[in-house]
Amino acid sequence: MHPNQSKLESRVRRAAEAALSRQKYVSAIDVLCGMGLLATPHVDDWRRGRVDFLERVIQANLSKISSSMAIFRRWAGEKGLKPSETGYVRHTRSGTMALQFSKSGDPGIEKSYRTHYVSPALSEKKQQRLQEKLNQSPKPVVFQNLREAQCSECGAEIEQGSLLSMELEQPLCLRCARLDDLEFLPSGDTALTRRATKYSGRVAVVVRFSRSRGRYERQGVLVETAGLEQAERECLEDADERAVARAHGAARRRKQDVEFAAQMTQKIATLFPGCPASEVAVIAEHAAQRGSGRVGRTEAGRNLAENALTLAVIAAIRHKHTPYDRLLANGVDRAIARQQIADRVEEVLARWQWRK
C-alpha cells in the first residue's frame, strides 16, 4: 500500500472508531469532521441551506473524498455494523426539502452519504429510537433581533428585540416565515418546554447572540398554542409529583458530588503527597463543583486523569501561593501575569510532588 493511502486509511479508521465509541453509530459526516476535512460550522450552514451541496465545503478533492468514503464503508463492514439510511432535510416555508451531499447529485452517491452504520450491540428498541432521532430534521431557528431590520419579502420593519427568521441570508418577519401563529415559550421550565415541544406539530428554537460570550444562546421555543395548553395542563396535574422527584434527584446528586470529591481528594493526595491535607480537600471541592465548568468537571477530570488533576492543583497554586490575582486586578494581561508567576508555580508544584 502506498504510504499516503496507508496514512489516509489510518485517519479514516481513527475518526470512525472515535465516533462509534462516543455515540454507538457513525456517519460519513462524523468521519469527515473527525478527519479535519469538514468543519462543524460548515455543516450547520449546509443544514440551513446556506451551502447548496456538502462537498463544496469539504476540504479535499473529490478523489480523496471518494477514497475516504470507500475506506469508511469497508471498515464498517469489517466491524459488522448495521447500515441504516437516514433522511437529511431542512425546513422551508413550504415544508421540508432534501439536502444534497454531492456536486453531481447522483442517487447512489447521495445514498452512500446518507447511510449511517449502527453498532449491533444496541438492542432493537434502542436502534429504532436512534433511527427516529436521526430522521428528525433540525428545528428551524428564529433569532431575537439585536438591531432594527427590514423583512426582505414584505418590507415590514422588524424592531430591535423582536423575532425574525433568516432565509438565504435575508431577514424575514415571522408572518412571511409562516411562524406568526406560534407562541413564544421562554426557557426555564424544562418539563413545560419538553411537553409543549412534544405536543406541537411545529416548533422553532429561539436564540439570541451574546456579544460577551461570542455565541448564540437559546432563549426559548416557538410552539403551537394547543400544544402549549396541553403541556400546561399536564404540568399542573403532576406538579407535586415532579417536586418530589426533583428533591430526590437533588439529594442523589449531592451524594454523588460528595463521593466524587472524596475520590478526587484521595487521588490528588496520592499524586502530590507533599500538599497539606487541608489544601488537598479545598482543591478537590473547588474543582469538583457541579456546573462550574472547571477542569474537575471535564471528562478527563471525572475520570480522575492525572493531567486534569495536575491542572486543578496548578490553578490552586496560582491563586493562593502567587500574586496572580493582584496582577490581574492591576490590569496586567492574563498571559503576561502567568509568565511572571510561572517559576513560583513550578517551585510549589515540585515541593508538593515529594513527601515530606
SSE diagram, text form:
Blueprint lengths: L2 H21 L1 E2 L1 H7 L5 H8 L14 H18 L2 E4 L3 E4 L2 E4 L8 H8 E4 L5 H12 L5 E4 L4 E2 L6 E2 L4 E5 L2 E3 L10 E4 L3 H10 L4 E7 L4 E9 L1 H13 L1 H33 L5 H11 L11 H4 L3 H15 L3 H6 L4 H19 L4
Parallel strand pairs: 6-12
Antiparallel strand pairs: 1-5, 2-5, 3-4, 6-9, 7-8, 9-10, 11-13, 12-13
Characteristics of this structure?
single chain; 356 residues; alpha+beta; 3 domains; 6-stranded mixed beta sheet; 3-stranded antiparallel beta sheet; 14 helices; 13 strands; 52% helix
Can you put this structure into words, describing what you see?
The chain has 356 residues and is α+β, with helices and mostly antiparallel strands. It folds into three domains: 3-135, no CATH class; 141-237, no CATH class; 243-352, no CATH class. The chain has a six-stranded mixed β-sheet. The protein has a three-stranded antiparallel β-sheet with strand order 1-5-2. α9 crosses α10. The radius of gyration is 26 Å and the shape is globular. It has 14 helices and 13 strands.
Strand content: 15-25%
Structural class: alpha+beta
- Unreliably modeled segments: none
- What is the spatial order of strands in the main beta sheet? 10-9-6-12-13-11
Average pLDDT number: 87
Specify the helix fraction band: 40-55%
The N- and C-terminal alpha carbons lie at a distance of 56 Å
Q: From the alpha-carbon coordinates, what is the Rg to the nearest angstrom?
A: 26 Å
Count helical runs. 14
State the total count of DSSP E strands.
13
Biggest β-sheet, characterized?
Answer: 6 strands, mixed
> What's the helix-strand series?
HEHHHEEEHEHEEEEEEHEEHHHHHHH
The shape is globular
Q: In the residues, how many domains can be counted?
A: 3
